[in-house]
Amino acid sequence: xxxxxxxxxxxxxxxxxxxxxxxxxxxKQYLDAEIQFVISNLHDTDAVLELGCGxxxxxxxxxxxxxxxxxxxxxxESLELAKxxxxxCKNYTMIRMxxxxxAFRPCTFDVVFCIQNGISAFxxxxxxxxxxxxxxTKNNGIILFSSYSHKIWKDRLDWFRKQxxxxxxxxxxxxxxxxxxxxxxxxxxxxxxxxxxxVELFDExxxxxxxxxxxxxxxxxxxxxxxV
Length: 228
What we know:
Elements: H1 3-9, H2 13-21, H3 25-40, E1 47-51, H4 57-62, E2 68-73, H5 76-85, E3 92-96, E4 109-114, H6 118-121, H7 126-136, E5 137-148, H8 153-165, E6 182-183, E7 189-190, H9 195-203, E8 209-214, E9 218-224
Parallel strand pairs: 1-2, 1-4, 2-3, 4-5
Antiparallel strand pairs: 5-9, 6-7, 8-9
């Protein structure tokens, strides 16, 4: 099954929420470190977009630090759950939209971010996803993408095994799972993007990517959209 379809049909809303509830302390540390890194790049006047916002897990944490936050996701069920999850926040909007084909006008957001390996998990063309991110970011705005560091491979794999054991994912194909790629017997496949690959992807658009490892768990790609 295509990853995008998987998250839309099999791993959305309460099932997605359950994935994070069963995370180990090390994985919860990784998830929080990602959010804190994003927040460290924000200003209280910023209009911010999260690609693949799910039920609002990250948006809820980011909301107090920005003027406005918008999230998009392809899962109607996740966005429905987000209405209650995001209730304490007043400065957010959520839209059902494919992150690789967005309806926003050019140069709309000060910061666009896509974390927790969305660049791989979405299952869309990476270059198209980056092109759309660039298009909707203001000149001199910031684009942030993240993927997993190889240093958290064991903890990441243990987390995916737990998800499989409780029926959130298909059975892990242990023979095919290696070198940063997790494969399930039902067709789900979780890959990663390393620092060099991020640099190469953005270099094709004439942009310089800074690579930052966070918490020995995330590889962040930070790009300033220079005025053309």
